[in-house]
Specification:
The chain is α/β, with parallel strands linked by helices and 280 residues long. The chain has one domain: TIM Barrel. 42% of the residues lie in helices and 18% in strands. The protein has eleven helices and eight strands. The chain has an eight-stranded parallel beta barrel with strand order 1-2-3-4-5-6-7-8, surrounded by seven helices.
Amino acid sequence: MKIIECPRDAWQGHHPFIPTDQKIEYLNTLLRVGFDTIDFGSFVSAKAMPQVSDTAEIISKLNLTNSTTKLLAIVANERGAAQACDFDEISYLGYPFSISETFQLRNTNSTIEQSLNRVQEIQKLCEQKNKELVIYISMGFGNPYGDLWNPEIVLQWIEKLSAFGISIFSLADTVGLALIDDISSLFNQLIPANPHLEFGAHFHTKPEDWKIKIEAAYNAGCRRFDGALLGYGGCPMAQDDLIGNMPTERLLDFMMEKKEPNLLDLNAFEEAKEMFLRLV
């Protein structure tokens, strides 16, 4: 199993600004844990997301010397992508591509068609700058807005987007309403049919639902999972009542249960948990 730790998702909707030096200290502790990737910041409008407005300032202060962990930054348009591509330390750019028209407008101020054009341009930048683009299929398991959704729509969009040369897709349960049958159906269709692509799950969940969601995806072949320590966060653009992120500690419990290889530094992990509580 591959764990993507998402502190950016945990704190982006937290209104009191977390001092930059505290974020740096926290991120450096996470880097010692040994996660595959850390979703550490965003190159988006400071007005829209003030909590991550210091992302560029943070990068040079991260201790990457003895870490195999890769950095991922979220972008919402070509301008943000160009900024992120200027930093050699960043391996991945993440773009939230919503298959709900309503949410795409709310999240990136663009229609789906405009967003598709953005993805093409961002992918070109990534290829030029030796970055890899990760597409988050927002509202990948349904939406609360009444926009049409079914598994076939998800499959069609992934086919269209992968034609641009994109190879990593994370299906996002943006508002925590994924049904177990839909999770199983989607991954059971996507993974065997696309062995050249990597598929992940970015679940938002109520505390009582964490395991059944992971289990459904895992049993269907998914091995890439996003999490956030203690389950904090969620998408502030989605709705007023946030459903929290998948708690990373639950992902670790699941890894141990399935006897998945685990090379994480658990002492650093516990230190990071305690530090996070002081941040928020």
